[in-house]
Amino acid sequence: MDLKSTPIDTPLAGTYRPPGDKSVSHRLAMLTGLARGQSSIRGFLDSEDTLNTARAMVALGATIDWTRGDHGWDLEVHGGDLHPPEGPLDFGNSGTGYRLMMGVLSALGGEAGWAGASIRLIGDRSLSCRPMARVIDPLSAQGAVIESSDGHAPVTVMPQRLRAKRHVLNLASAQVKSALLLAGLSAKGTTTVEEPAPSRDHTERLLPAFGVEVIRHGPTQVSVEGGQALRAGHHEVPGDISSAAFVMAAGLLVPGARLEITQVGLNPTRDGFLTICRAMGATYQATIDRRVGDEPVGRVDVQGGSLVGATIAPEWVPLAIDEFPIIMGLAAAASGTTTLSQAEELRVKESDRLAQMCSQLERLGVNVIERPDGAVIQGGEIDGGEVDCGGDHRIAMTFAVLGLVAKAPIVIRNAHWMQTSYPGFVEDMNALGARLEWLA
To answer: How far apart are CA 80 and CA 114, in angstroms?
Structure first.
């Protein structure tokens, strides 16, 4: 389906609570399924990606009872009695679910009923183009047996008894780190992961709630001891700052806007978007109110105003890796020049986000220079027109936001891809005063 975003002449206003955090929802679906006994999850994200991960756990033997809650799904999960699935596990467009599951399954060879098993993991066309060797190679160094299509999906995992290992990664990646830590829970010995820079740490924050001791040697190095049993319990999902980023961006761009964003996760390994907005002259106030498990949660008060271009520091990139489509959108609307570098990872997300954002911004009259590792964006006015999100949910939402402040409406082709992470985006934006309309 296509989406039309029309410029607005009245400020956005209201209180907004984002949907459940996508990263946390993926991890809780897996961990509660692995933990023996009855667990609960409140506020589980209702999106195609996270539902695919939950369905995979059901195919592996977990039992999940679903209830519509006030904010997403409330789940009752009976886990621990897992077995090889009868067919392939389909993760659709979800790289997080896919990569983390490789870590979980690869180490189960010592569990009853898993010896000799062969589990095939599949996904959609986009997922099948994304690199999986970054997970396969370090797992293989621990004794994992994983067959792939030249380092891409689909893969077939044959569970083994893994040996622990110290991994030194060349790239800061929460997905790779988490896959290795989850495999390390079933490996013999201590598994250590060292990264060149900090990455999001949801796995490290969640594991202690399941009774697992996690040793942090610093912001870039973490260890787990194998053989620790996961304990069932009760869990809550904070609001997703990556989803909230689109609403916050709209509030920053629309003159006179005043938004209160509540119950949003403010994990310091996810705050790169806020840091970059501040560097661009944004007016907002972030306040931590409480903790959900070990996750800081609070509110962000946003005020519309003018933004200026900025040079984005390389160390901010891993802390805002999912938000760069909307960051590039902000740069297009800001006055002055924004420079992004050392962001090659954006080329292997749901799309080549550097190429897709640059090409589509150019279609709207924005002066953009694409570079191998980033871009230079000369901000200013944004023309109306037609763009294609390239099968990428975050690019679709970015242009929906830009349409509110463009000189004429923007039509986003194939905008239905936003269902993979944020099905309620259009309704939430319109409730705050946006003019988004699905086209037949």
So the answer is: 13
Place of tokens 């195609």: 48
- Are 247 and 436 in contact, with CB atoms under 8 Å apart? no
pLDDT higher than 80, residue 440: no
Distance CA 248, CA 410 (A): 19
Q: Which single residue is written with the structure tokens 């994990």?
A: 267
Q: Which two tokens stand for residue 95?
A: 């790289």
Q: What is the DSSP string of 86-108?
A: SS-EE-TT-HHHHHHHHHHHHTG
> What's at 373, amino acid-wise?
D
- pTM of this prediction? 0.96
Phi/psi at 193 (5° precision): -125, 125
The domains found in the chain, sorted by start residue, are: 2-20+238-439 (3.65.10.10), 22-236 (3.65.10.10)
How does pLDDT run across 315-374, given as a tens digit for each residue? 999 999 999 999 999 999 999 999 999 999 999 999 999 999 999 999 999 999 999 999
Active-site positions read 322
Are the beta carbons of 269 and 199 closer than 8 angstroms? yes
Q: Which tens digit of pLDDT belongs to each residue from 253-282?
A: 999 999 999 999 999 999 999 999 999 999
- Other beta carbons within 10 Å of 6: 16
CA atoms of 303 and 258, how far apart (whole Å): 5
Question: CA torsion sign, 346 to 352 to 354 to 356?
Answer: negative
**DSSP structural state of residue 36:** B
Distance between CA atoms of residues 426 and 396, nearest Å: 11
Packing angle of the helix pair 353-363, 393-402 (nearest 10 deg): 30
Strands 166-168 and 190-194: parallel
CA-based max dimension of the chain: 64
User: What is each CA distance from 45 to 53, 258, 290, 426, in whole angstroms?
Assistant: 11, 26, 20, 16
Distances (CA, A) of 328 to 137, 156, 355: 32, 37, 12
Segment (H or E) for 140: helix 133-140
pLDDT tens digit sequence for 285-311: 999 999 998 999 999 999 998 999 999
Beta-sheet strands, E only, within 335-429: 337-340, 367-371, 374-378, 385-388, 410-413
